[in-house]
Prior knowledge:
By secondary structure, chain A is an alpha+beta fold. Chain A has three domains: 14-125, PAS domain (Beta-Lactamase), CATH 3.30.450; 142-248, Beta-Lactamase; 286-415, Transcription Regulator spoIIAA (2-Layer Sandwich). Chain A is built from 16 helices and 15 strands. Chain B is an alpha/beta fold. Chain B is built from four helices and five strands; from the N terminus they run E-E-H-E-H-E-H-E-H. In chain B, helix 3 (88-96) links the parallel strand 4 and strand 5. In chain B, 39% of the residues are buried. The A-B interface holds A 315-316, 319-320, 322-323, 326, 328, 350-351, 353-360, 383, 405-406, 408-411, 413-414 and B 83-84, 86-92, 94-96, 100, 105-109, 112-113, 115-118.
Amino acid sequence: MTGSEFLAGKSAEILKTLSAGQCLVELELSGSIRWANDHFTALTGYSLDELKDIDCWQLLDSGHLSPEHQETLLQTLRDGSCATESFRCRNKAQAEQWLKVLFIPVRDDATHQTVCLAIATDSTARKQAYLAMAGMIKALERSTALIEFDPSGTILHCNDNFLELMGYQLDDVVGRHHRIFARPEQAASQEYLDFWASLAAGEIVPGQFERLRQDGSSVWLEASYNPIFDLEGNVIRVVKFATDITENVRVNEEIETKAKALAIALEQAQESERIRDEMDRTLQEMSTPVTPIWDGILLLPLVGVVDSTRTDDVMRKTLNRISEHQSKIFILDISGVPTVDTAVANQLVKITKATRFMGCETIISGLSASIAHTMVDLGVDVGEVRTTSTLRDAFRIGLQQVAAFNGNGMTRREAEPQGDSIKL
Amino acid sequence: MDQNAQPIPIAQVKDLLIVTLPPALSEQIMADTREQVGAWLARKPIRAVLFDLSAVPLIDGGDFEALGQLAVCNKVLGTSTTLIGIQPGVAAYLASLPMEPPFLNFAQTMASALRLHG
């Protein structure tokens, strides 16, 4: 008995086994449904009564298969050939359903009629996954530049985006090596050989790459080179997805250049500020030259406009100098000061007080009549500020004070407590 | 004397009383100083009291006022008061206060102060 005879004898058993695990439908060659098993009714949601005698194409999603296509398929079956087709259907709940169907024409020897056994498989999940993947690839192809290579770097194909970006026609690139996009020195480098060796070994290489257009101009690509494997794990192709980032790179370089220029400008500004500060300090030193002119006597000739900032500086430097030189007399000559305001006058009085707390008497010399009047008019509390009209008088008094101190150890208060003090 | 009173270093040189004030002044220290100086003045004939402030980095208005009151008391008892070694920053601060206690003399160093009082 041959194999085919054996199977012919087992046809009822085969059908029973098939029906136990598969969706089976019996069709007229006109497309009319004669019978469907429980698996099919469960899959579609229709009962056998609902399915019986209806045209099988009614189960398809509207417009999915053209009448010409339907007729071609039926004709194939009438000719005694099998056919396989995938259909997009709607089940009873109107949900999308993909069925992969194997049509087998079977001749009924009793009636001499040919009927069709359809074995259907639900491929909805696989089809949906495939469509999602295909959509993704199409979207990638639409939005990015794509090129395919064999593992050695020979170009197999590229999309329109890539051709437009690089300025080539498809025929210009297919069959040529990737090195046409690289600078000659780069293409000749060991690094370049290693790059293709890595891809051929199955490594993904992402990064930013500088490439050359057909006209020799430079283009920067954010790209990833992706090896594609066959079922045995061999690299059969390399697909590169690329995005043009030339403008970004240019802007980044511009920003970097500007940042460097800014850093230099900042450094120059800081240096200028340092020089200005130094000059200010020097000027301040020059504007408040507190000088020891005699053993125990300090002199500060103030010239020009005096404001509260300058008097603060005078206070600070004078007190420090008194501490350094252990001076007993501080002569503040203001004959070079044209005028003073209330704040400055009060500050001068404070300087006098502060020097006294350090055991040093202040004599303000060169006080002009106009300044004296101003101070009185402004109601400045001058207390016991000792004043003289000339620097000479102040120096004479200072010498007497120091001599008195060195001689008999008497302070001004004790030696001549009120005599030379002018209470304004 | 109060049992909790802080001992203040006080030395007598001839008829001068030298009081060395600690770096951190407080109301308690000022009160103790007043009490201890008063006790000395009651026992001995003192011509001048010299307060050494060279170790004091900060004197606030309250401390300065307390020293001023002590100077007034000393004056009543016939003794003069001298503050020694006020630092430049402290002097600038005290000059900004709206007070100038009477009967206070000032010297920069102990040598100056001793010379001041013969």
